[in-house]
Design goal:
Blueprint: E1 2-5, E2 15-21, E3 28-29, E4 34-39, E5 44-48, E6 53-58, E7 65-67, E8 71-77, H1 82-87, H2 93-102, H3 121-130, H4 148-160, H5 163-173, H6 180-183, H7 193-208, E9 211-219, H8 221-238, H9 245-258, E10 264-267, E11 270-273, E12 279-281, E13 283-285, E14 288-290, E15 293-294, H10 302-317, E16 331-335, E17 354-358, E18 362-368, E19 371-385, H11 391-406, H12 409-413
Helix pairs in contact: 3-4, 9-10, 9-11
Length: 415
């Protein structure tokens, strides 16, 4: 027998939800053939068959929450894999014994000493992302400090308990029952892990940050003319279309260099100023919103930025993004204009202190040199954490972005 187990899912990701099985018990499988789809907080991954044979048992059903290393099912290896089959049984007892070995840790919960010890940044981040209170976790570090390993173990224990899954159902039951004729027309669908995470993180951002939004508008005429003039030549040389997002990324990097508070974050009582520019680009998919990160945008050319964004967009819609490609962003950009949004107030992508909202380009009458002209205008929105960014800094940042877009030569001359 060969066991199908939950693979390592990435830093700080300790559990997943069974999306769907591609095979049913009794069906033949080939080695490395995708067997089951797992949904994590950030991405969807496929678990391949570790051996060829027949799927003999499915342990975790669709919708179940499973921890890293948990057994998902069993494969009875076929005649073609007889040699590997002989080697399969010895490792099996070891993984099977692993879960019980991790269970003796709960008695350590009686140790309260770690609750008062200072928390490491990684511990605070895991606590914020998972919802597990670090103060309740027994510490195994020096002087009872809670370590990253302690937090990961606590998160796994919490995931193994049924109560977190039952709580949302209990909350739903509080709603007033629908009349019988209405209830028959309702459809109840379980939220995906990605949607649950989006909901939790957005609400956490509202509860934690002193969020404020400031607006401005930009005349997109010069950028549009530049695109029209060089679109074909740009695509022929670089193999990618010349979009608007590359200009916005470059404009934001210019502004972030002048207003570093918008590129900072709060860590306890400290402010961390990021001297690098990893820009998250929000991408809407059928599964929900994901934010892949274009790293070191200050060192990339416009073509490199456009290529990276295009690749991320395609793989996001295919569910093929990697977890590390959505971590480490210092500032984010979201474009509601592609859906027709004229104005909005984007929510921060915590722990970042700023996010720029792009919107629909719309012809509007504007006064230019004393005359009324119809110009292609876009509203810009900067949501920011007022605990870090003052109003003067937020307005200045947005004005700098506006200036760079209305005079694209500034982006070339680094002005």
């Amino acid at each position: 027998m060969a066991e199908i187990r939950v693979p390592t899912l990435g830093e700080s990701v300790t559990e997943a939800t069974i999306g769907k099985w591609f095979k049913q018990p009794g069906e033949a499988v080939a080695v490395d053939e995708p067997l089951v789809e797992l949904e994590t907080d950030k991405v969807t991954i496929e678990v391949p068959a570790p051996a060829a044979g027949v799927l003999s048992e499915v342990v975790a059903k669709d919708g179940d929450t499973v921890a890293v290393g948990a057994v998902l099912g069993q494969i009875k290896e076929g005649a073609a894999a007889a040699a590997p089959a002989a080697k399969a049984p010895p490792p099996a007892p070891k993984p099977a014994a692993a879960p019980p070995a991790a269970q003796p840790s709960p008695p350590a919960a009686a140790k309260p000493s770690g609750a008062e010890a200072p928390l490491a940044p990684s511990v605070r981040r895991l606590s914020a992302e998972s919802g597990v209170d670090a103060a309740t976790v027994p510490g195994s570090g020096k002087d009872g400090r809670v370590t990253k390993g302690d937090m990961l173990a606590a998160i796994e224990r919490a995931a193994a308990q049924p109560t977190p899954v039952a709580q949302p159902a209990a909350a739903v039951q509080v709603r007033a029952p629908s009349p019988a004729d209405d209830a028959a027309r309702e459809e109840r669908v379980r939220m995906t892990r990605l949607r649950q995470t989006i909901a939790r993180r957005l609400k956490d951002a509202q509860n934690t940050a002193a969020m404020l939004t400031t607006f401005n508008e930009v005349d997109m005429g010069h950028v549009m003319a530049l695109r029209a003039q060089y679109r074909d030549l740009f695509e022929k040389k670089h193999g990618v279309k010349l979009g608007f997002m590359g200009f916005f990324v470059r404009a934001c990097v210019q502004a972030l260099k002048e207003i570093p508070a918008v590129n900072a974050e709060i860590d306890g009582s400290d402010l961390i100023y990021k001297n690098y520019y990893h820009i998250g680009i929000a991408v809407g998919t059928e599964r929900g919103l994901v934010v892949p990160v274009v790293r070191d945008c200050d060192t990339k050319s416009l073509a490199e930025i456009e290529k990276t964004i295009t690749d991320f967009g395609r793989r996001a819609r295919d569910g093929a993004l990697k977890i590390d490609e959505m971590q480490g962003g210092t500032f984010s950009i979201t474009n509601g204009g592609i859906y027709g949004s004229l104005m909005s107030t984007p929510i921060l992508n915590a722990p970042q202190s700023g996010i720029l909202g792009m919107h629909k380009i719309q012809d509007r009458p504007m006064v230019v040199a004393g005359k009324v002209e119809v110009r292609p205008m876009m509203y810009l929105a900067l949501s920011y954490d007022h605990r870090i960014v003052d109003g003067r800094e937020a307005v200045t940042f947005l004005v700098r972005v506006k200036e760079s877009l209305e005079e694209p030569a500034r982006l070339v001359l680094d002005l």
